[in-house]
Design brief:
Number of domains: 1
Largest sheet: none
Shape: flat
Helix content: over 70%
Structural class: mainly alpha
Number of strands: 0
Distance between the termini: 54 Å
Oligomer: single chain
Radius of gyration: 15 Å
Order of helices and strands: HHH
Length: 89
């Protein structure tokens, strides 16, 4: 039963990634595209963690943590760039 639920969740997260990529492509503004990129990072983390559960290992957990940290830093850097025009003062 866990295998079926895991694969169903992988398919649903894959669909969420596809919809997020659509918003990233067609976003009306730069803020919408930044939010779509952040959402894409969160969906990719969920996909990595679901693969971790499906493969019954704990190897990918550290990769998910690194993706979360890099996604946060990237989102903040893009937001600062859009607001100020430069990242480092």
């Amino acid at each position: 039963m866990l295998t079926i639920a895991t694969w169903a969740a992988i398919v649903m997260v894959g669909g969420a990634i596809a919809l997020t990529l659509w918003r990233l492509w067609k976003g009306p503004g730069i803020a919408d595209r930044i939010l779509a990129l952040d959402t894409l990072t969160i969906n990719a983390i969920a996909l990595v963690l679901l693969a971790d559960v499906a493969l019954d290992t704990s190897v990918y957990f550290e990769a998910a943590l690194l993706m979360a940290m890099m996604g946060f830093v990237g989102t903040v850097a893009l937001a600062v760039f859009v607001r100020r025009g430069t990242i480092i003062e």
